Amino acid sequence: MSFNSSNGLLSTSAPTMSERDLESGITSDAAAAGKGFDDEEKKKMVDEEDDDVEDETDPFDIAQTKNASHNTLRRWRQAALVLNASRRFRYTLDLKKEEEKEQRRRTIRAHAQVIRAALLFKLAGERQMVSGSSVAPPTPSGDFDIAVEQLSTMNRDHNVEALQQYGGVRGLERMLKTNLETGVSPDEADMLNRKNVFGANTYPRRKGRSFLRFLWEAWQDLTLIILTVAAVLSLALGIKTEGIKEGWYDGASIYIAVILVIVVTAVSDYRQSLQFQNLNDEKRNIQLEVMRGGRAVKTSIFDIVVGDIIPLRIGDQVPADGVLISGHSLALDESSMTGESKIVHKDQKSPFLMSGCKVADGVGTMLVTGVGINTEWGLLMASISEDTGEETPLQVRLNGVATFIGIVGLAVAVLVLVVLLARFFTGHTKDADGSVQFVKGHTKFSTALDGVVKIITIAVTIVVVAVPEGLPLAVTLTLAYSMRKMMADKALVRRLSACETMGSATTICSDKTGTLTLNEMTVVDACVGKNRINTASDSSELHTEARSLLCEGVAQNTTGNVFVPKTGEAVEVTGSPTEKAILSWAVKLGMKFDAIRSESKVLHVFPFNSEKKRGGVAVKTTDNSVHVHWKGAAEIVLASCSGYLDSNGCVQSIDNDKEYFRGAIDDMAAHSLRCVAIAYRSYELEKVPTDDEALAKWVLPEDSLVLLAIVGIKDPCRPGVKDAVRICTSAGVKVRMVTGDNIQTARAIALECGILGSTAEASEPNVIEGKVFRAYSEKEREQIAHRITVMGRSSPNDKLLLVQALRKRGEVVAVTGDGTNDAPALHEADIGLSMGIQGTEVAKESSDIIILDDNFASVVKVVRWGRSVYANIQKFIQFQLTVNVAALVINVVAAISSGDVPLNAVQLLWVNLIMDTLGALALATEPPTDHLMHRTPVGRREPLITNIMWRNLLIQASYQVVVLLVLNFSGISILRLEHDTKEHATDVKNTMIFNAFVLCQIFNEFNARKPDEINVFDGVTKNNLFMGIVGFTFILQIILIEFTGKFTKTVRLSWKLWLVSLAIGFVSWPLAAVGKLIPVPETPASEYFIRPLRKLRNRGRSSSSSQDN
């Protein structure tokens, strides 16, 4: 086992120069010449690359657990020293269950593949599927004309014959009492009736662990089992030798202490599990759009019912089984069900949609025919457990720390055991009254056994204190707390490791729309023909022809909807923010949405594509003419235009006026407006494909377009975004804007948000277009990536290339995304942040954290929480190691010198409870402070124990050891107990040591809150949990000393001795303040240990290579 790297005590060994050059993508020639980098920049890049080099000899050195292999995860678990595996590995990935889960997935996928293969076979006409009998006629069920079993069979078998026999989609519409245009009634009674007949869109989930299970797992600790056995032996021997009246105290006291530890541990773990359970419920609760009563409404996936009409767009998850009503270029990724990555196209020949699949392309509308357990997806999800086990890099490193400390503690415990047994059997161990405990040939066997049991109990208890079993679990505790609080800050954590990795983020690549801006869009400027309509809704200047074509293009070329209530209420416009803005503008121009859509027929749709940045539709009008409408990025659509519609409704050549329109676009962009162009062209009906297959493959003509309008859409910057960017900058996190918008718009917004400090910075390569960046070679992209601040007109692939280039330079990259095509970048980034409002389900599933309000300020809060996780763990480590060192040194020195230990088994168990469970609760749940954002990002390979922590730890531990050892050896005289009996004086002295030791920990808990600040009380009264735990610990300590003396082997202390104990604890406060004035070197202490090891390793490599030669 190796402990020479990132177990937190020692940092990772650096690779050779050639290894670094290879990993950073620098060839040997470029490295020699320093091409593209100055010396300082190159050194920084190499140093950062060191952080990403994993040491294969150290099982605890895992930089990222996000995509770690099972073998890597299995290796560190086998290397860890663990006393209670069921508790230690509770929130890690259960590798055995993962294999079982994958096996179940394969079984169900195989079923789906068989059905699909049979269907394709049948459609190919090679043979007819023989079912043994014809499709049974529909059977009424409740108020509906078809039973749930028949729908389930049709969906499961993809039975087109059954669908046709039921009358197709129109027949199902009648039998399910729905409407293909307006959906089901939103009436609650109807919803309830549908759920009763066809089931709810939920599936049975396994119940969480009960509290009794947590009690059982807490008791699985090997040392607690040994202590329980020892307590039973001690109880039996005590009753035998001293009688039941006095003899039961020793054994019972240990047993009660063990029970207290188990109960407190179980309560803490149970609370954590409930928090994770609540967060998992939030993750599953997908919100989607449904048509009900003619109105598009947002609803939970759990509220979907059979008969619902659901519009599908790119990136959506199919929420239930259903049948396609209509669609254009609709394609699904069915890999979640079939295991195949092949994209499956859906049309009237293949109309069945499976729940859980993702929309890869196109648009469509579906009729829900199966929900919940009546779907293949429901069966799959019900059959597999949804354990959220996942280890984090910090958790793995802390297991390394715990293993290292545990081995040291185990060695100390064995030493104490050997010394105490040797002293006992050689007659050097005496009772409090001075009598020898063991005399060979005279001491009874039961008495000797009782003495041995007590010695073993002390040694085992030292192991309990020494092995910091709660240290890795503190990560889970602080993550559970942080995730719950982050929900209030509008961030839903999907992957635990992202929460802590965010604290190491050095750059954030943010979208513009909806993240830096409000996503509340309105058309404030328009250029129709050569007329600028600044009022944006003034239709008086528009020619009838221009208005008609504009309204037709806007109404048909959209995924939004306009609902006009019959009651005369305000018009409701739904869709994406851009669609809503343009639809609202057209409504003000007089557009009759429903009338236009009913008068013309859609022939083919080209859904908006983030690569081409435009979308189109071909429609057939009432006079049998064909219009192809396009809408998209202004300069891109303009480039495809050959004419424009003037103020008289006549088409004019655009050749001489293109500069005018480009100027209009630049002017709008300079005012931070998003520019969208609307254009159309006529097309011959004869050239339009007539059969469905050819029509589906038809490519809409996109040349010789006639420009109808250019609209400028205002999307104001979010309030507070400038402050959020400033906070990030001061925290060493560079904010980069990556947007699909015009480069001028991007530059203006970046200046407004503070991402660009001045117009002088707004030049290449600080501000760059996506097409320019992607044209560079891979090496050139790496060289300029760190200089890019704004990227305009970028595609999702450009974002991916930027993320890859930045990561190769050693940056820890967080990236935001909302579209389906953002999924690769979200997956590639160290932390993927998807948008909760505008984000597609594909983007959310590829992300690590969902920003629920799409606000950049919430991203900054996530950074604070990420740093808080790391800081809280460091506070707990400092506190716990101080207790470890002090307790071990005191007991070892006392055992070797006097043959007895001042802290007995019950007292040590109480100290362990303070240090482990209660200490973790108090320190691992500290809320983040502004101070955290005044530091640079935490390096992923930065030692867990910093020089500041070593200083604080050694000062406090040394003070406690010195004071308590002085009390141990000179306490009777110092406390003026010479006139008491020797037994009573020894009891008072040992009680005083125990009391002073515990009070030192209570006072030191305050010091641990602020390792690098003198004022440790700042904000302490706002942390109710911390104050409650400190108060609870102090009150229980008083009870233990004053009222449970027979169990804890203590005696009551006078008020003077209580004051002395408090004074000893109090000194730790000024001592900590003075200690923080002592400067510490910047080089981590671990470096002084790792350098000799590195030299030895290099020598070993050199000698082995020379032998090979």
From TrEMBL:
Disordered: region residues: 1-58
Ranges of compositional bias, category Polar residues: 1-16
Biased composition (Basic and acidic residues): 36-46
InterPro entries according to UniProt: ATPase_P-typ_cation-transptr_C (IPR006068), ATPase_P-typ_cation-transptr_N (IPR004014), ATPase_P-typ_cyto_dom_N (IPR023299), ATPase_P-typ_P_site (IPR018303), ATPase_P-typ_TM_dom_sf (IPR023298), ATPase_P-typ_transduc_dom_A_sf (IPR008250), ATPase_P-type_domA (IPR059000), Ca_ATPase_N_dom (IPR024750)
Annotated EC: 7.2.2.10
SMART domains assigned to the protein according to its UniProt record, in alphabetical order: Cation_ATPase_N
Composition-biased stretches (Acidic residues): 47-58
Keyword Plastid: no
Signal peptide (residue range): none
Entry membrane topology: Multi-pass membrane protein
GO MF terms held by the record: ATP binding; ATP hydrolysis activity; calmodulin binding; metal ion binding; P-type calcium transporter activity
Record's subcellular location: Membrane
Domain (Cation-transporting P-type ATPase N-terminal) ranges: 165-239
GO cellular component labels: plasma membrane
Alphabetic keyword roster: ATP-binding, Calcium, Calcium transport, Calmodulin-binding, Ion transport, Magnesium, Membrane, Metal-binding, Nucleotide-binding, Translocase, Transmembrane, Transmembrane helix, Transport
Catalytic activity: Ca(2+)(in) + ATP + H2O = Ca(2+)(out) + ADP + phosphate + H(+)
Main location: membrane
TM region(s), chain numbering: 214-239, 251-270, 401-425, 455-481, 953-975, 1025-1045, 1057-1078
PANTHER family: CALCIUM-TRANSPORTING ATPASE 9, PLASMA MEMBRANE-TYPE (PTHR24093:SF520), CATION TRANSPORTING ATPASE (PTHR24093)
NCBIfam families, sorted: ATPase-IIB_Ca (TIGR01517), ATPase_P-type (TIGR01494)
Family: Belongs to the cation transport ATPase (P-type) (TC 3.A.3) family. Type IIB subfamily.
Functional note: Catalyzes the hydrolysis of ATP coupled with the transport of calcium.
Protein name: Calcium-transporting ATPase
Organism listed in the record: Linum trigynum
